[in-house]
Design a protein that fits this description.
Elements: E1 35-36, E2 39-47, E3 57-61, E4 80-89, E5 98-103, E6 106-107, E7 109-114, E8 117-123, E9 129-132, E10 142-150, E11 163-164, E12 172-173, E13 177-178, E14 182-187, E15 196-200, E16 205-209, E17 216-222, E18 225-231, E19 237-241, E20 256-262, E21 265-271, E22 276-279, E23 282-285, E24 288-289, E25 292-297, H1 311-323, E26 328-331, H2 338-347, E27 350-354, H3 364-374, H4 391-407, E28 414-421, H5 429-439, E29 444-449, E30 459-464, E31 478-485, E32 487-488, E33 501-502, H6 506-521, E34 529-535, H7 559-570
Parallel strand pairs: 11-12, 25-26, 25-34, 26-27, 27-28, 28-29, 30-31, 31-34, 32-33
Antiparallel strand pairs: 1-14, 2-3, 2-4, 4-10, 5-9, 5-14, 6-13, 7-8, 7-10, 15-16, 16-19, 17-18, 17-20, 20-21, 22-23, 23-24
Helix pairs in contact: 1-2, 6-7
């Protein structure tokens, strides 16, 4: 199946104005007036202790310097940092009192200079941040913006997911620098800094919270029709009753719009009436049991690497997964731009969100080989075995965990968190599970996906690649096979591919999938298995075990056949 005509994996029409990813980057908290700073920036690389006098190169933001679409001549190496520079002039009438500079994500440690002054800093490569640059900016005339980015992949000080300075097998090209949209907003002196949304469909209400809420009004809309208005309390809280609320499901992903107003500051957001909880070993969505069929989704692209080449490309992945009958994407040790979650919210794709792993090098024998061969579950207080000797790195992981949870709090599609995957950088799992529960009591937690299970969380989570699918039901946790399959069909013609089992052609791949789903997965229904996640959505670099090629030009299987396999698993009775 060829879907190349439906979307472009490259910039396509956006190349003409040189402004990639030009859509508003934060649909969960949107302002009407903004200025996109994506496009061609000056670029250079310097030693860590130097600020270059001149940036002689160029780069296309927001693509990392390692990505082909960036156009950069080189990327920073060990002991170096990247530098970005550009000038901007505020449009007439744009300034309202304060000027906010927003970054979707910068990998990993970032400093922001405006007109020669250090305006702000941020650490963490997966979360957005905002710098108030009001006092450094010329309201009329040209302003100079300079951004530095230092990447510390695999040094134990921050999270890096599946990035590797020595890619191969299941590890991919490391990223650095700016890799999500950069934009400006101007707000009045008194503005709305953030919004927390907690739906409560059982009580037919939604709870809203903002800092310093006095003088803030709201209006809620359903299908474009205003259904209620009100004001926040002085403490910044509002409880909105929705007696006839429409529940959000993958089949009916209904979103309510909400408009907030504080003085001249206007913010548009949305929410969904959706709950998720565990009852014994059942997973309940809006109080009803649901079964999950998912795909592992790495979020890599051959031209943009960590950054999708266009908004349409993100939509293509989600829509194609739905067409194949999957109702879940497990976003694997990466956090996507907020627009990706918005598309999942509006299209009805459930998301199982991994927290990106960190730490330094670990003992492969103890963390990988022992559980694979002997099934032993090691205690994660042995920090050295899991690459977690470095205390500042452990502390930084907890800080990034809180940042990620706060960033995705408003996304109804996200129903579960993976705290640790296959022992990568794992530590203090029971304590951190409790911490994650405090941060977000509204979602479920897969504490240890794959192995080194410490007995906590909501899932008994297993990865099965080289054996027949099997499962033993626990009385107190949900049964989930969170990785399996990984069957490879290499259409690249390059050779040297990695997969867990190879197929010679499409017919061979479909035969393997049919055997997996009908012969091995369906019998586990009666044993109480709730979730199965197949590896994976698309090929990534040397991995050729995707249902799509890496460039998304070809779907390797018959979509209708895959949909029937999923329907048999998801519905009450096999077909």
């Amino acid at each position: 199946m060829d879907r190349a005509a439906d979307r472009s994996t490259r910039l396509g029409r956006l190349e003409e104005d040189n402004l990639p990813l030009n859509e508003y980057p934060r649909p969960q908290f949107m302002r009407p007036d903004w200025l996109n700073l994506n496009g061609i920036w000056e670029f250079g690389v310097s030693p860590l202790d130097q600020i270059p006098e001149e940036l002689e190169g160029s780069i296309l933001v927001p693509f990392s310097p390692e990505a082909p679409l960036s156009g950069a001549d080189r990327a920073p190496g060990t002991g170096e940092k990247a530098w970005y520079g550009r000038s901007f002039t505020l449009p007439e009438g744009f300034f309202k009192g304060r000027l906010l500079l927003n970054f979707g994500a910068v990998d990993q440690i970032c400093q922001v200079y405006v007109n020669g002054h250090l305006a702000g800093e941020h650490s963490g490569g997966y979360t957005p941040f905002t710098v108030d640059i009001t006092r450094f900016v010329l309201k009329a005339g040209k302003n100079r913006l300079l951004v530095s980015a230092e990447d510390r992949t695999e040094l134990g000080t921050g999270s890096y997911g599946k990035q590797s300075t020595s890619p191969g097998g299941i590890w991919y090209t490391a990223q650095s620098g700016i890799w999500q949209t950069v934009w400006l907003e101007s707000v009045p002196e008194e503005y709305i800094p953030e919004l927390r949304i907690t739906p409560d469909p059982e009580e037919k209400r939604v709870l809203l919270e903002i800092p310093d809420g006095g003088g803030t009004d709201y209006a809620v809309f359903a299908d474009g029709k205003r259904i209620c208005t009100g004001s926040f309390s002085a403490e910044g809280k509002a409880e909105i009753g929705l007696p006839d609320c429409i529940l959000w499901t993958p089949e009916n992903p209904f979103l309510y719009d909400i408009l907030l107003k504080r003085g001249e500051d206007l913010v548009k957001s949305y929410f969904a009436m959706r709950s998720v909880r565990r009852e014994g070993n059942s997973l309940l969505l809006n109080g009803k049991p649901i079964r999950l069929s998912g795909l592992l989704d790495q979020g890599y692209w051959p031209d943009g690497l960590y950054t999708a080449p266009s908004d349409e490309a993100m939509v293509f992945d989600i829509e194609t997964a739905k067409e194949m009958g999957f109702n879940l994407l497990r976003k694997h040790v990466k956090v996507e731009p907020l627009r990706w979650y918005y598309h999942c919210d509006r299209l009805g794709m459930l998301v199982w969100q991994d927290i990106p792993n960190g730490g330094d090098s670990y003992s492969a024998f103890w963390t990988r080989d022992v559980p694979l061969t002997l099934g032993m579950q090691l205690k994660d207080r042995k920090y050295g075995r899991f690459g977690r000797k470095y205390e500042p790195g452990r502390k930084r992981f907890e800080e990034e965990l809180a940042d990620i949870v706060r960033t995705l709090q408003a996304c109804p599609s996200v129903i579960a968190w993976t705290l640790f995957n296959e022992g990568w950088g794992q530590f203090d799992t029971r304590r951190l599970t409790d911490r994650l529960r405090e941060l977000d009591p509204t979602r479920l937690i897969d504490s240890a996906s794959g192995w080194h299970d410490q007995g906590g969380g909501d899932f008994c989570s297993r990865h099965i690649y080289f054996q027949k699918l099997k499962f033993s039901l626990e009385s107190s946790r949900i049964g989930a096979i969170t990785e399996c399959g990984g069957y490879g069909l290499d259409l690249s013609g390059k050779g040297g591919s990695f997969s867990y089992r190879k197929a010679r052609d499409q017919a061979g791949l479909e035969k393997l999938l049919t055997k997996l789903y009908r012969g091995e997965l369906l019998p586990l229904k009666s044993k109480g298995l709730v979730c199965c996640i197949y590896t994976q959505l698309s090929d990534v670099e040397q991995e050729r075990n995707g249902l799509l090629t890496a460039d998304r030009e070809t779907v390797k299987i018959d979509v209708e056949r895959m949909r029937k396999l999923n329907r048999a698993w998801l519905e009450d009775s096999p077909q």
